[in-house]
Input
Amino acid sequence: MDIIRDGDFLMVSGMYSMSQQLSMLANKTWSGSLKTDWVEYLVVAGGGPGSGVMGGGGGGGAGGLLSGILSVVSGTSYTITIGAGGADTNPPARGSNSVFGSITAIGGGQGMEGGTITLYDNYNGGSGGGGAYGASNNSNPGGNGIVGQGNHGGAGQVSAASPYCSGGGGGAGTVGLVPPEANGGGNGGAGIASCITGTVTTYAGGGGGHTHAAKPNGVGGVGGGGTGDSDGSGATAGTANTGGGGGANSGANGKNGGSGIVIISYPDSFAAAVSTTGSPTITTSGSGSIFFNNTPDYFTIPNKSGFDFGSGAFTIECWVNLTSVATIINLFQIGTHAGGNHFVELGIANGYNIIGRLYDGSTYKYEHTSVDYTGKLNAWHHVAMVFTGSSVNIALDGVFGTPISYSGNDAPSGQSAYVGEQYNNGLSGVGYISNLRVVKGTAVYTGNFTPSTAPLTAISGTSLLLNTVSGSAFIDTSSSSSILTAVGTPSWNADSPFATGVGFKNRVYKFTSSGTITF
Output
């Protein structure tokens, strides 16, 4: 969704508006001295508590969740309030509200007390608490959620097969569930996932409902919801700083809701906040790189069909920033040099040639070294190895060398892959790799090209994609989702081949206690 202001388009993803771009160009302030006038926010209130009573307490509703874009004024101090999770009381009480400036998320509703005949307003909230069995064995509806912040809780049930079963609390994403007949308490509603910190995290799940007679417990909703209990005191609280609803209990007070959270983000080419109170965690999210510090320092990836190239086309590409090369640094390799294995690899030698080669266990079927890397240390460069099925070529920053003719079926099969500097006969180097992509079946580039200025995406045939973003730097985002295992100490680094200020890096302020922020 785009936000329109004075004829400009401000992208929710963190892109500059037209007026901001013109201002920065006029004042030469792309380096981070300009103050931001818009921020992205996530505000989650404290979750409601589950109820605790013999037979039938409802799960706590999740805290209200709000996200979006807010206009801010330079030099103005904005209040941050972190809502506490609610505690089981009589009369009931909601979780506390969370606030960022003019944005207020409402605390989650308390789960309903079993046997109650009074429908308190505090069963309602950002998301509603779960309903319980009512007086004279009647069921009660769950509490109501607030439109745009959460959902209602599930109703309680009473039957001969399912005595005194209560509903799950509502979540920000889905309603709390009604107890299944004869099968226990209702599950809490699911929360909503956000990547505002750079890591996908789910917030505001509802608490699980209670059931009587040792039936299965209601499970907390994803996003911090607590689990309900039956005939005991084993319920769990909502998770702190998620706004999750508390689980319902038996014979003791229901469990507390989880506290809320406030997160603020904007592109890091704008100036940092002038001041903060409340000790927020301040980080940078977005595109980065993997740092490899000499040997052995690499990731292994189990074999999959996407690494069995056969005689077909393939493309291996990445951005690399090397600080030193002692002998050869491998960027990506399928198979190993040991034991006469077949392997295909892309690397850089200390003679400052880029190397792309295929070994069949006894001889190099091709070894492309015609592309010069001299003078390229300590800067980002795009490197690609492209096999068409009849020739192999290497490109540096989109410019190809001289192709080598080759056709055959000597590529490795059934071999693991390696990212970074796998130790072999003293090979070593230090540097950064970003946005590594491996594509089977396609020569992605067939002539000189301009490398992408944005993080790569998974195209048809992509068998490995490491976007190296903060929070999930070692995650393969291709459809096959390979598992990477670290050897040595490869680590994430904020250094990136992509310019800041175009939506790829953000300043992130995560408040888990109340305070202020001034932009």
